[in-house]
Design brief:
The protein is of the alpha/beta class. Helix content is 40%, strand content 22%. The chain has a 5-stranded mixed sheet, sandwiched between helices. Strands 8, 9, 12, 13 and 14 form a 5-stranded mixed sheet that branches. The structure holds 3-hydroxy-3-methylglutaryl-coenzyme A.
């Protein structure tokens, strides 16, 4: 196999064993549940129990992707983890993951940080490493993993979540990824977490504005190169980073405006090609870097080979990238779906007391 024969060879998703219905959070915080379910479009947020962290999630997703890939660890020459859930200011999360997997030797192992965009950057680097020939036939293991927690009682709290998606980058059995991608970045303080602080600071309205702008600018580039309406019509689906589902609807409205679509065309695009991609996202909450890839994993499953989809990645600060993927021969079987459905079916929905205890335990673990 040549290095140019590259794409996503295998996928693994891991969700944690706890979750909370946002209506329970609404009752706890004294807000109208419709604000969270209708206003934000949220349903449940995934949560980690004590002792289960971002490294646990990353290792779970990686083991699933590796088991399905069938290759051996000594075929992996690059391990990149995109995360904003730092365990250490220096030691990369990839070191915890390599330890869990028993991966060592001739491997470039590192962490990528760019808010929710880190996992996508790690994936693009792995693809480009293969396409460049530098991989010399080796595969890459890329993981996007995060635990998203906001300060208790802050506006972001209902949008919390957690999850990890691992991808082996080698033969395009699950999906091919377009070499061309459309990026946009602009420095902003929309969402950030100063060193030493446990929870992000957020300028909510600015964060919405930046996300919408980034989506519009990326889709404009796609439209300029591949046509506007025609390019959207060719897509089977369009997956977005999902901080909360209503955000995606707002972004699609911005894209429609930028591309000169009528309100009816924009609404149809959202309902037919975007809304259906967020079924798992509504159960996971915002898994930051993993959020887009959870939607992509759900969407690819069951697709016939060659079916095109789009993936729009956004990370605060801010940076964004839009790319297209086409389903590979293993997409139709969607072997990873059973694992995700099992994670969702077996997890415990916590009540308000358990939630408060979990939040208190964060402080016990050194999180202030
Ligand atoms: P808020 O201030 O609580 O909400 O925070 P709001 O007052 O703006 O209301 C939200 C919506 O609920 C509004 O709908 C209300 O009308 C509606 P809209 O007008 O916008 O369509 N509403 C109701 N609907 C039905 N019944 C009711 C009711 N009451 C109100 N009774 C905010 C919202 C998003 C700011 C907050 O959740 C937040 O700070 N979230 C975190 C930041 C975020 O997710 N930003 C998104 C873009 S940035 C991004 O995606 C990057 C990120 O993932 C981080 C990274 O990159 O690492 C966050």
């Amino acid at each position: 196999m040549t290095d140019t024969d590259t794409g996503i060879a295998s996928l693994g998703v891991q969700l944690p064993p706890l979750a909370m219905d946002v209506e329970v959070l609404a009752a706890l915080r004294g807000v109208d549940p419709a604000k969270l379910t209708v206003g934000l479009g949220c349903r449940e947020m995934a949560l980690c129990p004590e002792g289960y962290d971002v490294a646990t999630l990353a290792a779970g997703a990686a083991r699933r992707a590796l088991a399905r890939w069938g290759g051996s660890l000594d075929q992996i020459g690059l391990l990149a983890v995109g995360t904003e859930t730092a365990k250490d200011m220096s030691r990369p999360l990839s070191a915890w993951l390599a330890d869990a997997l028993g991966l060592r030797g001739a491997v470039r192992s590192y962490e990528v940080k760019h808010a929710c965009y880190g996992g996508t950057l790690a994936l693009r680097q792995a693809l480009e490493w293969r396409w460049s020939g530098a991989a010399r036939g080796k595969a890459a293991l890329v993981v996007a993993a995060d635990v998203a927690l906001y300060a208790p009682e802050s506006p972001g709290e209902p949008t919390q979540g957690a999850g990890a998606v691992a991808m082996v980058v080698e033969a395009p059995r699950v999906a091919e990824v377009s070499r061309a991608s459309f990026s946009y970045s602009e420095p902003a303080f929309d969402f950030w977490r100063p060193v030493g602080e446990a929870y992000p600071r957020v300028d909510g309205p600015l964060s919405l504005e930046c996300y919408v702008k980034a989506a519009a600018r990326c889709f404009e580039q796609l439209a300029a190169e591949r046509g506007g309406r025609e390019a959207l019509a060719r897509l089977h689906a369009a997956c977005f980073h999902v901080p909360f589902p209503k955000m995606v609807k707002k972004a699609v409205a911005g894209v429609g405006e930028a591309l000169g679509l009528s309100d009816a065309e924009t609404a149809a695009f959202f309902e037919q090609k975007v809304e259906p991609t967020m079924r798992w996202s509504r159960r996971a909450g915002n898994a930051y870097g993993a959020a887009l890839w959870i939607a992509v994993a759900q969407t690819l499953a069951g697709l016939e080979q060659g079916t095109p989809i789009a993936a729009f990645s956004y990370g605060s600060g801010f940076g964004a990238e839009l790319m297209t993927l086409t389903a590979g021969p293993d997409a139709a079987a969607g072997a990873w779906v059973a694992e995700v459905e099992a994670d969702l079916a077996s997890r415990t929905l916590v009540d308000a007391d358990r939630y408060l205890a979990l939040r208190a335990a964060e402080r016990g673990q050194g999180i202030q």
